[in-house]
């Protein structure tokens, strides 16, 4: 069902494909502790113990995509963390490659309609028509000798999406796209090679940041971010050179946020 793109094979990537797994992130980090080198994709069509940010459960029923790339060659944790933005761009490119062929008119680099269909929500979500389609989770572990192992986890709602969540969610099937997890992963493995080359060990982060901003959800709109026990509200201005979320509050203060839960629309503008 799963296979690597020719470009990924040529670049030395490897694949461990499973029908079902507890957590692709956990298995990838386990493989690293067992001595596996980086550039290993761990992929499954079902995930029974997946997690999202802050330990929240992430369901991957059969037919959806759970994919994790093991990275071991980046030693700086701050640089490694920016691979989440590479992952978002790679997934966006993969969706643009396979979904139009499935008969849905989208295009991340096209007109306004295309940009509005698939967007990137800081720091780790991919939205479709404003609803959550995919999530990205980076988890790290320390190997012998203090080396860093990073699991770049990507979960995509391909055939189904959760109904009992406090935010809008969708799937490719709900959008009318006739694409399966194998087709999407093939395109993702190809798009990752292209985007990680742009990133270039962090040296190309400025180009990644600019490309990400071109696809950013809510840019220039009202947002709220829950941080440090309070809710900050303002206009989403940009992400800075370190990929922190920058909002301009009502009093003109520019706030740079490294981590937090972002909300748009009515939730953002609601006042207590």
Automatic annotation (TrEMBL):
Organism, scientific name: Chelativorans intermedius
Domain of life the protein comes from: Bacteria
A GO molecular function held by the record: biotin--[biotin carboxyl-carrier protein] ligase activity
EC number: 6.3.4.15
Catalyzed reactions per annotation: biotin + L-lysyl-[protein] + ATP = N(6)-biotinyl-L-lysyl-[protein] + AMP + diphosphate + H(+)
Alphabetized NCBIfam families for the sequence: birA_ligase
InterPro entries in UniProt: aa-tRNA-synth_II/BPL/LPL (IPR045864), Biotin_CoA_COase_ligase (IPR004408), BPL_C (IPR003142), BPL_LPL_catalytic (IPR004143), Transcriptional_repressor_C (IPR008988)
Domain BPL/LPL catalytic: 1-200
Annotated keywords: ATP-binding, Biotin, Ligase, Nucleotide-binding
Protein name: biotin--[biotin carboxyl-carrier protein] ligase
């Amino acid at each position: 069902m799963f296979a690597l793109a020719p470009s990924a094979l040529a670049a030395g990537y490897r694949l461990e494909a499973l029908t079902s797994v507890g957590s692709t992130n956990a298995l990838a980090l386990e493989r690293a502790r067992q001595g596996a080198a980086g550039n290993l994709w761990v992929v499954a069509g079902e995930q029974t113990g997946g997690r999202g940010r802050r330990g929240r459960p992430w369901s991957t029923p059969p037919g959806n995509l759970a994919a994790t790339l093991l990275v071991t060659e980046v030693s700086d944790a701050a640089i490694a963390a920016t691979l989440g933005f590479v992952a978002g761009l790679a997934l966006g490119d993969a969706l643009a490659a396979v979904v139009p062929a499935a008969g849905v008119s989208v295009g991340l680099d096209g007109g306004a309609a295309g940009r509005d269909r698939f967007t990137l929500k800081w720091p780790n979500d991919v939205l479709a028509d404003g609803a959550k389609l995919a999530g990205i989770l980076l988890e790290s572990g320390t190997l012998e000798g203090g080396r860093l192992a990073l699991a770049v986890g990507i979960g995509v709602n391909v055939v189904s999406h959760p109904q009992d969540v406090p935010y809008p969610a969708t799937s490719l099937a709900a959008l009318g796209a006739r694409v399966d997890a194998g087709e999407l992963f093939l395109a993702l493995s190809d798009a990752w090679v292209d985007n990680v080359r742009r990133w270039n060990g962090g040296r190309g982060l400025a180009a990644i940041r600019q490309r990400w901003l071109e696809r950013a959800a809510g840019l220039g709109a009202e947002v709220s971010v829950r941080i440090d026990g309070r809710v900050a509200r303002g206009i989403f201005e940009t992400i800075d050179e370190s990929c922190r979320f920058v909002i301009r509050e009502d009093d003109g203060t520019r706030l740079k946020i490294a981590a937090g839960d972002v909300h748009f629309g009515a939730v953002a503008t609601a006042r207590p």
